[in-house]
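Regression test case RT-17, inverse folding.

Input:
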């Protein structure tokens, strides 16, 4: 009987709540990635807004119930940036990682839940030449970029555009935010790419006014007589990489200058005056001058006269040789 009484007492002590079990509230910390102020979270109907540290705390009594956490991102952002909820980490149920409201959260021990957000930023792209001078938008209206997420886009120059700037990264059970970078692939003018693909980069999260360098050069054309060296021609006709043609008359200095040309392959033709048409291929990679050698009518007449003189000399020499042979 004594043993039975002792067993009942021990069993009763085990069923009574211990001080450690009955005491101690439980805190759920919710943090944002990236760190954002003003994000509204609702836990079982209780609302809290993140401060400058990007966190809120919900505290409740220990229990074995399931609890609900929701995010409200409707009023996040400003005129030049916007944030949208992307996913959770630490919410226990992996099937609820991308839902705005998660349920079944425990209150048995302190833990942290992370809410990650994507971000877009309003960015304006501008082009300048190698000397820092603004390039007219009509010259380079659009550029092509590729993000490090692999997306390629054609973007307008001189007009605001919204670009992805932050995206969540979930790695080894840790949820963080990564800045999205972009690389410039092309900035076409007259059918030629004015830039070297991959050399210029920017991040919308860091730059809202992005300046891209698109070099342009001047081409000065002059012409000289191929034989006499005198100035020749009246007009320079230059075929651009896109097939369009610019005709520029020679000025008082006997040159024609074409400005703001991208590097590329060009065909230069000189016409007019006493010269015939003369063409020359050039590869423009910097501001440069090219002199075209023109064969004029005078050059052709001189050449014809020289050929006639040579032919006459050969004819006379042949006659003399035949006479000598005949007199032998």
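Golden output:
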């Amino acid at each position: 009987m004594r043993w039975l009484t002792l067993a009942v007492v021990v069993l009763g002590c085990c069923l009574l709540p211990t001080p450690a079990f009955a005491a101690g509230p439980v805190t759920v910390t919710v943090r944002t990635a990236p760190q954002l102020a003003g994000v509204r979270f609702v836990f079982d109907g209780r609302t809290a807004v993140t401060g400058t540290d990007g966190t809120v705390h919900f505290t409740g009594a220990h229990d074995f119930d399931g609890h609900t956490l929701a995010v409200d991102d409707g009023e996040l952002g400003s005129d030049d940036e916007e944030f949208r909820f992307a996913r959770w980490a630490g919410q226990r149920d992996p099937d609820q990682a991308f839902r705005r409201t998660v349920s079944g959260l425990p209150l048995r021990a302190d833990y942290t839940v992370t809410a990650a957000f994507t971000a877009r930023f309003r960015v304006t792209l501008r082009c300048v030449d190698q000397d820092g001078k603004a390039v007219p938008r009509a010259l380079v209206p659009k550029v092509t970029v590729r993000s490090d997420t692999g997306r390629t886009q054609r973007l307008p120059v001189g007009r605001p555009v919204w670009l992805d700037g932050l995206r969540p990264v979930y790695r080894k059970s840790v949820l963080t935010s990564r800045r999205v970078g972009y690389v410039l692939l092309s900035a076409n003018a007259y059918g030629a790419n004015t830039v070297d693909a991959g050399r210029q980069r920017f991040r919308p999260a860091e730059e809202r006014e992005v300046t891209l360098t698109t070099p342009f050069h001047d081409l000065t054309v002059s012409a000289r007589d191929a034989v006499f060296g005198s100035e020749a021609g009246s007009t320079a006709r230059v075929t651009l990489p896109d097939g369009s043609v610019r005709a520029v008359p020679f000025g008082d200095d006997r040159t024609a200058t074409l400005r703001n040309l991208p590097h590329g392959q060009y065909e230069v033709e000189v016409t007019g005056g006493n010269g015939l048409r003369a063409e020359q291929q050039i590869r423009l990679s910097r501001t440069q001058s090219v002199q075209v050698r023109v064969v004029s009518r005078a050059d052709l007449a001189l050449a014809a006269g020289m050929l006639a003189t040579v032919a006459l000399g050969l004819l006379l020499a042949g006659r003399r040789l035949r006479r000598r042979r005949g007199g032998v």
